[in-house]
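Hypothesis: this fold can be encoded by more than one sequence.
Test: take the structure tokens below, design a sequence, compare later.
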């Protein structure tokens, strides 16, 4: 049984950010990660052509900026290199291949009892921690919706987190389901390399250029009202793209920044997908109603055959599977119960970082707030050990 002051679960950007903030405050911690590397989502579960959607100044972790020669929009490799430098700079040594299987609060010892599985030795490791930080992410597991007949589909079915590049799909007909950033970019990756590609667009979506989003973020930072910023960038986007409703792309009533703030849903940053849709290179289809062998039926009555389906249908948090007594912090979906900005603290020294659907800048805020809160409690406790 290892006694630690703070246990951080997950060594993605969130866990690493808390670790860095705690070490700046001279607070000892232990950080565990189920995979064999840090930022495993970025290294193992993202597509090759991924670039950060936001300008680098909105994607920094606490206490360390990007090198000045870094381009405004950085790619996956550059982000991973930044994470590696971050881990080195703050002397973070995550305990890798260590998957937390259960955590519960012990009222007698006032500590969190944690059981973890060491995937290398196969041994069970027990920790007892005064503070527990959930940093396992909103993207812990891919969601694949239930569709009648999907199990009998003879072709390949993958989630976007397993998609790497068009290479594996030459000569195939691919259906991409979902019109968020991943779905739209994967459709572009496939179609721009000659793969027959269709995309299912079911719900309204804001299509934007990255320049417009960058402009909007700057205006919001200058404290202009969000509704006004939304009005400006939607107007500019409509000038840039024209009416897209005839292609099946409909704008939500609420503007993109307000929508992000209220629901966490991001605008789609167009990487060229819309032009391919306009040219008819990418076909847009309505919702899938059912699947019969390799033939897929759509809600508007259409019927097409495909070799592969890529589900770009989002992710979910899995913290509830291992966290007991976390009801004060997380709801049944493993997401914060309380609204931003009061989402990060539960009872008995329990915290979450990176679950506010606010990307890397939200992670940075959460990490600083949580570390400062732990510091103030530790200071008032006197000596813990
Ligand atoms: C494709 C994609 C693109 C994105 N692009 C951007 C962007 O451009 N800008 C932006 O700001 N945000 C972006 N995001 C959102 C967000 O910033 C990233 O998802 C970020 O990696 C989240 O960091 P995290 O540490 O909270 O979660 P993760 O990166 O998911 O890290 C959580 C870690 O916890 C580990 N873990 C999970 N369960 C356990 C367990 N039981 N025990 C031990 N370890 C566990 C996981 O293995 C993982 O390494 C993107 C997300 C995705 C999916
Ligand atoms: C859990 O909270 C999130 C926001 O943090 C919300 O989107 C989701 O609908 C909630 N789920 C449940 C089951 O209440």
């Amino acid at each position: 049984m290892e006694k630690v002051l703070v246990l951080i679960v997950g060594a993605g950007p969130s866990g690493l950010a808390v670790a860095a903030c705690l070490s700046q405050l001279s607070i000892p911690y232990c950080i565990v990660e189920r995979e064999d590397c840090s930022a495993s989502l970025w290294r193992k579960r993202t597509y090759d052509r991924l670039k950060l959607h936001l300008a680098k100044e909105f994607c920094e972790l606490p206490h360390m900026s990007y090198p000045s020669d870094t381009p405004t929009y950085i790619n996956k490799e550059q982000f991973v290199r930044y994470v590696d430098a971050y881990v080195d700079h703050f002397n973070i040594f995550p305990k890798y291949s260590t998957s937390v299987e259960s955590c519960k609060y012990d009222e007698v010892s006032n500590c969190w009892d944690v059981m973890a599985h060491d995937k290398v030795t196969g041994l069970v490791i027990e920790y007892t921690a005064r503070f527990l930080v959930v940093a396992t992410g909103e993207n812990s597991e891919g969601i694949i919706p239930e569709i009648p007949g999907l199990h009998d589909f003879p072709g390949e079915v993958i989630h976007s987190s397993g998609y790497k590049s068009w290479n594996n799909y030459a000569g195939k007909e691919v259906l991409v389901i979902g019109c968020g950033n991943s779905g739209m970019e994967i459709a572009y990756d496939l179609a721009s390399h000659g793969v027959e590609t269709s995309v299912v667009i079911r719900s309204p979506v804001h299509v934007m250029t990255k320049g417009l989003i960058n402009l909007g973020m700057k205006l919001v930072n200058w404290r202009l009202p969000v509704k006004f910023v939304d009005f400006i960038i939607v107007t500019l986007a409509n000038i840039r793209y024209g009416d897209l409703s005839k292609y099946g792309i409909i704008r939500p009533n609420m503007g993109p920044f307000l929508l992000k703030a209220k629901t966490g849903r991001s605008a789609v940053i167009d990487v060229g997908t819309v032009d391919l849709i306009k040219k008819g290179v990418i076909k847009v289809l309505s919702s899938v109603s059912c699947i019969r062998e390799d033939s897929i039926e759509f809600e508007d009555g259409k019927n097409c055959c495909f070799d592969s389906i890529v589900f770009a249908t989002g992710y979910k948090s899995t913290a509830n599977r291992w966290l007991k007594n976390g009801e004060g912090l997380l709801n049944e979906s493993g997401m914060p119960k309380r609204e931003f900005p009061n989402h990060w603290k539960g009872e008995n020294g329990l915290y979450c970082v990176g679950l506010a659907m606010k990307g890397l800048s939200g992670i940075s805020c959460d990490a600083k707030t949580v570390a400062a809160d732990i510091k103030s409690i530790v200071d008032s406790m006197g000596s813990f050990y």
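The first helix runs from residue 13 to 24. The radius of gyration is 22 Å.
Hypothesis status: open.
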